[in-house]
Write a sequence for this structure.
């Protein structure tokens, strides 16, 4: 299978965008101007990008506390995201949500929940709506390995199978719930097998390889959109940083995987570049162009976020209800 | 649930809101059914789901045979997964549907607490009103025949504490229909609490579609001596108590808030200005319950009108016992209201 050139550029652009934006957040976090608990997805860029590259603009995604990658991969507005991290009125949630509660309804992102597992049934519901209204849209929920331990994950799979709705459960398994390794929490690390009880097809793939994610997701999205019912895709990924904030303080005390040290860990962007080199796709010049454009875009977004007005305290009680 | 039907038939006397009047009458359950029927007919985005909604009982008659009329894709049974069910309802509401999630008992909603409290109630505020959650959650408060500690809880005050939810508790068939129509048309999450014994009540219900605004109390009885703010089935008990009190020359005013959130303070405060006495007849536990909020607000906003300290009749702060002797002792009723009012009136003589 060959990936179209436009798609390759888009994938490269999104991977880099998620990487660069988060490195910038990390760089500036110590200034304490972004007063919001960030959960960086550095290292995990490939899973969200590979999945979302197969989605239409109106398709739904439901995210979680580690929200930046999903939002940007689906095409969420960067300026509104950075402004939200600075808790500004111009933020995507007008400063009421913060990093864990991003939203961009214009690209089918209906809001991320910071309750682990909380957004899983929402995707089932949105997929149900798509089916009821005959819209042909699919819904994707991104969940971590810890969310797969919540009862609502199983309830959601049960309902999705029963109603045969177009939903894809994407489990980004980074093996860590804060500092607790999966091996201390579950006897079976193969999360994709959980779907078997509900006769939901599932796969476990290398979530660090964006080409593998993209090509698998292409088949899965097509099948789900064509009425084949739900799917569970386990993407095995590496979380480079700690659970929250910048860096990974105390990593040596809890990290079990040697491959997560900065020298030996895998890098989905470098791997994609190697792939592009081997296939002689996307010239160095084209890549540089993307990088430079991104640097300008990110610079502007941070300036926008920093310079935007804060919410008015007169509006404290606004938005409790929708009019 | 056949046992509760038995109990209602035996224990709850007939109550006709419009006795002696030649008007169109429906039972509480029929009124709810008519509201849902009309909502389903008017809007293709409305759907109803819950355990047993399509069974021969049809949720005490309130959903009876609607699946036959609108199809199993719009009125359907659900597995016992309240958290998943309510979460799915929320997600579908985000994507344009108008779900009515029906639960036999409020007790079971505790399994969906995360979705109701952490999600439905927060979405508007957290995302600055960008994604409406037009969701109705119906639950019927049980009573009697050994329903006990886990099948008869009235948990509205738990939810009452949480910003971002509407709490609706209709008493009459007329209000049941009008408020359910309003609830389904509202763009925010609504918790709609019924009470099992009210299902035997009948009253005037117009055939046409009508809605009752939230936050509008109804004065069920005009009076001058004591204002009784009563909730759900306690409204009926208060009306019965009023007849007894009238024979003793005591004239009570009875206010049914109909919606706890938003609460019609004005009607209550105006009544207090007239009577100077407040009794809250609540349908839940005492501590931290709805009655505490009503009394606080009246004390703060109409202190100078009060002739004496407000009083309340509530469930005692214990789980509901199952055995019938203790169960009868647990529930406050007509006599408790009569005694409370008499004691209030005696204070100033």
């Amino acid at each position: 299978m060959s990936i179209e050139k436009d798609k390759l550029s888009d994938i490269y652009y999104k991977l880099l965008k998620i990487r660069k934006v988060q490195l910038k957040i990390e760089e500036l976090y110590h200034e304490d101007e972004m007063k919001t608990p960030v959960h960086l997805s550095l290292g995990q860029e490939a899973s969200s990008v590979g999945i979302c590259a197969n989605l239409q603009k109106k398709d739904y995604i439901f995210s979680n506390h580690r929200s930046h990658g999903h939002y940007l991969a689906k095409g969420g507005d960067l300026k509104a995201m950075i402004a939200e991290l600075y808790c500004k009125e111009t933020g995507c949630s007008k400063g009421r949500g913060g990093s864990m509660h991003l939203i961009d309804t214009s690209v089918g992102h209906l809001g991320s929940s910071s309750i682990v597992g909380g957004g899983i049934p929402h995707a089932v519901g949105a997929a149900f709506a798509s089916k009821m209204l005959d819209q042909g849209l699919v819904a994707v929920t991104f969940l971590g390995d810890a969310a797969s331990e919540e009862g609502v994950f199983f309830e959601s799979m049960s309902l999705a199978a029963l109603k045969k709705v177009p939903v894809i459960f994407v489990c980004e398994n980074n093996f860590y719930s804060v500092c607790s390794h999966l091996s201390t929490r579950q006897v079976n690390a193969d999360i994709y097998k959980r779907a078997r009880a509900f006769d939901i097809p599932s796969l476990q793939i290398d979530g660090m390889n964006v080409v593998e994610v993209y090509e698998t997701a292409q088949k899965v999205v097509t099948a789900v959109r064509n009425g084949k019912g739900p799917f569970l895709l386990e993407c095995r990924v590496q979380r480079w940083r700690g659970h929250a904030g910048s860096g990974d303080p105390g990593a040596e005390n809890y990290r079990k995987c040697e491959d997560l040290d900065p020298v030996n860990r895998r890098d989905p962007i470098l791997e994609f570049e190697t792939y592009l080199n081997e296939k002689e796709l996307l010239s160095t010049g084209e890549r540089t162009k993307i990088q430079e454009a991104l640097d300008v875009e990110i610079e502007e977004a941070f300036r926008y976020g920093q310079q935007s007005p804060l919410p008015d305290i007169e509006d404290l009680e606004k938005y409790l209800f929708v009019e | 649930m056949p046992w509760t039907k038995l109990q209602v038939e035996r224990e709850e006397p007939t109550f006709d809101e419009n006795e002696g009047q030649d008007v169109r009458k429906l039972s509480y359950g029929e009124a709810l059914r008519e509201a849902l029927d009309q909502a389903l007919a008017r809007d293709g985005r409305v759907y109803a789901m819950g355990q047993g909604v399509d069974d021969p009982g049809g949720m005490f008659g309130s959903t009876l045979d609607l699946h036959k009329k609108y199809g199993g894709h719009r009125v359907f049974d659900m597995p016992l997964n309240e958290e998943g069910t309510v979460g799915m309802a929320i997600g579908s509401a985000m994507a344009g549907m108008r779900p009515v999630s029906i639960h036999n008992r409020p007790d079971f909603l505790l399994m969906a607490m995360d979705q109701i409290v952490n999600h439905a109630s927060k979405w508007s505020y957290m995302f600055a009103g960008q994604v409406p959650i037009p969701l109705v959650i119906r639950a019927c408060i049980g009573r009697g025949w050994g329903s006990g500690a886990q099948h008869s809880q009235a948990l509205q005050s738990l939810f009452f504490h949480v910003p971002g939810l509407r709490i609706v508790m209709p008493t009459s068939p007329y209000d049941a229909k009008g408020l359910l129509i309003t609830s389904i048309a509202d763009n925010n999450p609504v918790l709609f609490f019924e009470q099992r014994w009210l299902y035997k009540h009948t009253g005037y219900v117009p055939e046409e579609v009508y809605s009752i605004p939230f936050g509008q109390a109804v004065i069920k009885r005009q009076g001058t001596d004591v204002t009784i703010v009563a909730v759900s089935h306690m409204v009926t008990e208060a009306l019965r108590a009023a007849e007894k009190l009238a024979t003793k020359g005591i004239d009570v005013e009875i206010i049914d808030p109909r919606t706890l959130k938003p609460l019609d303070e004005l009607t209550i405060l105006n009544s207090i200005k007239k009577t100077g006495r407040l009794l809250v007849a609540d349908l839940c536990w005492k501590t931290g319950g709805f009655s505490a909020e009503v009394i606080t607000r009246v004390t703060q906003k109409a202190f100078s009108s009060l002739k004496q300290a407000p009083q309340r009749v509530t469930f005692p702060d214990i789980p509901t016992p199952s055995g019938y002797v203790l169960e009868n002792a647990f529930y406050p009723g007509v006599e408790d209201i009569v005694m409370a009012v008499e004691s209030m009136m005696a204070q100033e003589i």
Notes: Residues 101 and 332 of chain B are 30 Å apart (CA to CA).
